[in-house]
Design goal:
This protein is α+β, with helices and mostly antiparallel strands. The chain is 30% helix and 19% strand. Bound molecules: zinc ion (ZN).
């Protein structure tokens, strides 16, 4: 993170660069003539503690070159500074020679020397420098916001290759300083020890704009080609050893950076109130957001701490599932999310993007637990491990392994898969989506990825059918429920699979092979033979079909492939439950605690046309209800279907049905209603 101070305990005074004091040699002698003498602080505005830190943080090599560096400055003079803090005067080479004029306490120009009087300031000829010194004397200079420490980060592309994801943030090291187009930027940088740093000015506002400027040690004067916020681009393959680089930005307006775990909600309010631009930088430990000021004022006026904490938590859950914690692969780099002004939500090479109109959901910490799906989904796209966890037709599916888990952790009583009210084939009902999976996948035996569901639709001319992404997610979510939530084996089931996926040699592997590899990895991670589950859910079935995705492709799995995997998995024991394919969030408890079905035949059942309402006051611990016509099963119904609180199940009972059976977690059937056929 940019501002080191944000990650350390609060220090006295402003304490800029303070936390680096120990690692920075204190070469103070000879930097400024007269330094260390005459500590007669006439400027009562600067506390002694600050003076101490300021005089102890100086780099000698920089200043020795100070005058020379000034002479080498390229683009000089003529620019117009923003009026608010820069004093409205252009920055000129001449003027900056005041660096050598005994006015500033150090080469970063962040404070006045103790013996500088108001008279002395008045005599400074250059308007920019005089303005700077005056504001310091008048205590109108936000030194804390302008003293910065840039930290090295792993190059974004290297990280993406290492984790086999899309790209994390390109906007690390936010300065929190806003520049106008055409403004002169004055930036003083310490010794980068051979590393290359750039100032990036990016406008996340409606007009857009992006420019980048290489930085050099010492004074940099840069003409901003566009307006926007500043970021110090410091990505290096040497990120583990490269030095932190100090710098100061003496022009531009302070927008500020809100840092999770450090900044307070009082800072948040001030930041929103005083922002000179449309967006603010919000930085957590796992994610960096650039969100719009106006909407935050409206939907998150006083909960900045809660907002970034929730985002950090969501990203943390994704990275946990990816195995990055378990396998110690967690990067220092953050993910990146920003506001967009057109569209809705998406993910791209920059990160996750959320339209300003969605901020009432994604920018409101009170509502995020109920609407975290979209957030987890878009960041989840970035975190999709490719190609091993993103084969054809799973482009909108495997990222939802994260979303479903986040949904469960933040709002388990309102699950997208299990609790949405939608027509899954028997009319609008809570749980319709899950029942579409149970009936088309498990009962009818359609192949996974092409099972029918509410969202199934034509893909358009010459394109394959688009199938229901949520129906596709169901069996992947069931595995998470079974292993992690119900605790039926390796709780690190997905972390282990993702780790294998990250490390897998996928060169030349086709989509069918990737799906087979996933199932093999799942058996290995579980150390259980999951092939019955995979066969039943339609994953381990021969298929040779063109499938829809952003890029369509042919999915081919042969009979021989299936047999090979079944033979391979035979070395593992069968899972404790033979009906993992029936687990849902409504029944996870029954699996976890091995609860037997309880109920009294023909009681607690209300007839309602072609439906039967089964009361859970009478019927307990069923995982699904099966409806039969004699020997033929005609419906599978998730427990809790069409009930807000899982107090009953609405079971479809089509014309000619003869009975309902309750199924327990271990696959046992209990007759609920109707008659079993004679044997
Ligand atoms: Zn998506």
């Amino acid at each position: 993170m940019f501002c080191e101070r944000h990650y350390t305990a609060p220090v006295k005074g402003d304490g800029q660069f303070f936390s680096l004091g120990l690692s920075v040699p204190c070469h103070t002698k000879g930097l400024f003539p007269g330094h260390g003498r005459g500590r007669a602080f006439f400027l009562e505005t600067i506390p002694e503690t600050e003076q101490y830190y300021l005089t102890n943080m100086i780099f000698s090599p920089l200043l020795k070159k100070g005058v020379l560096l000034l002479a080498l400055c390229g683009v000089l003079g003529g620019g117009v500074l923003s009026a608010q803090e820069a004093g409205g005067a252009p920055i000129t080479e001449e003027g900056l020679k005041a660096l050598d004029s005994n006015v500033f306490a150090n080469e970063y120009m962040l404070a006045l020397k103790p013996n500088v009087t108001r008279d002395r300031i008045a005599r400074i000829k250059d308007p920019f420098v005089r303005g700077l010194a005056t504001r310091m004397a008048e205590k109108k200079f936000d030194r804390k916001a302008r003293a910065l420490t840039a930290e090295p980060y792993e190059p974004v592309k290297d990280l993406a290759e290492r984790l086999r994801t899309s790209q994390y943030s390109k906007f690390e090291n936010p300065t929190g300083i806003f520049f106008e187009e055409g403004e002169d930027v004055l930036l003083v940088m310490g010794d980068p020890k051979g590393e290359k740093l750039n100032l990036v000015i990016h406008n996340f506002g409606r007009d857009g704009g992006h420019s980048s400027y290489p930085l050099k040690e010492g004074v940099n004067i840069i003409r901003a080609k566009n307006k926007g916020l500043g970021y110090i681009e410091y990505f290096t393959p040497n990120y583990k050893k490269a030095p932190k680089v100090h710098l100061s930005i003496l022009s531009g307006k302070v927008n500020g950076v809100f840092v999770g775990g450090v900044s307070k909600n009082s800072d948040w309010k001030k930041m929103l109130e005083n922002s000179p631009t449309e967006v603010v930088d919000i930085v957590g430990s796992r994610v960096h957001l650039v969100y719009p000021v106006e909407e935050l004022k409206q939907f998150c006026p006083d909960k900045g701490e809660e907002l970034i904490a929730l985002y950090d938590r969501i990203i943390g859950m994704e990275q946990q599932i990816m195995g990055l914690y378990k396998y110690r692969m967690l990067p220092k780099n953050r993910m990146f999310g920003r506001v967009i002004w057109n569209g809705f939500m998406h993910a791209d090479g920059t990160g996750a993007a959320f339209h300003n109109g969605t901020m009432k959901e994604v920018g409101n910490p009170d509502r995020i637990p109920g609407s975290a799906w979209g957030i987890a989904h878009e960041f989840g796209h970035v975190n999709q491990v490719r190609p091993a966890m993103k084969w054809v037709s799973t482009g909108e599916v495997t990222n939802n392994i994260y979303s479903a888990y986040v949904n469960y952790m933040l709002n388990p009583s309102s699950m997208r898969l299990e609790h949405e009210r939608i027509n899954g084939g028997d009319g609008n009902m809570i749980g319709g989506r899950f029942n579409a999976y149970l009936n088309n996948g498990i009962l009818k035996g359609e192949n996974w990825l092409v099972q029918s569901g509410p969202d199934k639709r034509s893909g358009g001319d010459n394109r394959p059918m688009v199938h229901d992404h949520f129906v596709k997610l169901a069996p992947l979510w069931q595995l998470e429920l079974y292993f992690k939530v119900a605790g039926k084996g390796n709780p690190d089931f997905y972390p282990d699979i993702f780790y294998k996926a990250i490390k897998m040699d996928t060169r030349g592997k086709k989509d069918g092979e990737l799906q087979l590899a996933f199932m093999k990895n799942a058996c290995d991670a579980a150390r259980q033979d999951l092939t019955d589950f995979f066969r039943k859910t339609g994953m381990l079935k021969p298929i040779d079909q063109e499938l829809d995705d952003y890029t369509c492709a042919r999915m081919t799995i042969t009979e021989a492939d299936c047999k090979n995997l079944i033979a391979y998995a035979r070395k593992y024991k069968k899972p404790e439950s033979p009906v993992i394919y029936y687990i849902s969030v409504n029944s996870a408890e029954a699996y976890k605690n091995r609860l037997p079905v309880r109920g009294v035949y023909n009681q607690g059942v209300t007839e309602q046309g072609n439906r039967r309402i089964v009361s859970h006051d009478v019927w307990k611990n069923a995982v699904v209800f099966e409806t039969y016509k004699d020997r033929e099963m005609v419906r599978i119904t998730m427990v809790g279907t069409d009930s807000r609180d899982n107090s009953s199940t609405t079971v479809p009972y089509p014309e000619g049905s003869t009975r309902i059976e309750a199924v327990s977690w271990d696959g046992r059937r209990t007759l609920v209603y109707g008659k079993r056929p004679a044997k």
